[in-house]
């Protein structure tokens, strides 16, 4: 306190309790040193060696894994998949990406207007069903998260029109009337005319050939009939002309 009496009062302020003082870094004194030769021999001698089995593994019988019993819920899902492929004419396989719930509800609403149902399926359920059916060529499409668009009618145009506004759902392929089509094949199928118009075109084409054949067969007889009628007409005009010409000469001779 006596030493601080001669110091100005504004210099004798409060000092912090913790002060950081930078010190010089110490030199590294620990370096890697090779193990002594005798210690290396001791470590090699005392190394643990696992005992060999009395019977080689190749001589043992392989263990038979117990067959896993199917879950009842899985059987139900497989049955639903089988019914979907059996009872519907159009089954479209689409890749599903995450989308808001509102957009999903809106998409299902628009598809339901055209009698198209949306089914979420698991690859673990679909692949065993398809591998034992005639649709096994559709297996490469079930890789990621997929959904099925099924309909008892081939509403391809309506489906493509709805999917055009939903970029999160990508069409991979479809099975229409037991015919597997790619994405391009589905688009080409949508460009075809309706079934009634196609049937009318086929009926018209089938009726055209018999009508042409009938006209060709009747052309000869009709032409012959026309020639005979003309010949008869010429004969009749010739006879009437020969009988009418002598009359004026007779009348002139009488005068």
TrEMBL record:
The keyword Repressor does not apply. It comes from Patagioenas fasciata monilis. It comes from the Eukaryota. The lineage of its organism: Eukaryota, Metazoa, Chordata, Craniata, Vertebrata. GO terms for cellular component: mitochondrial inner membrane; mitochondrial large ribosomal subunit. Belongs to the universal ribosomal protein uL10 family. Keywords: Mitochondrion, Ribonucleoprotein, Ribosomal protein, Transit peptide. It is found in: Mitochondrion. Pfam families: Ribosomal_L10. This is Large ribosomal subunit protein uL10m.
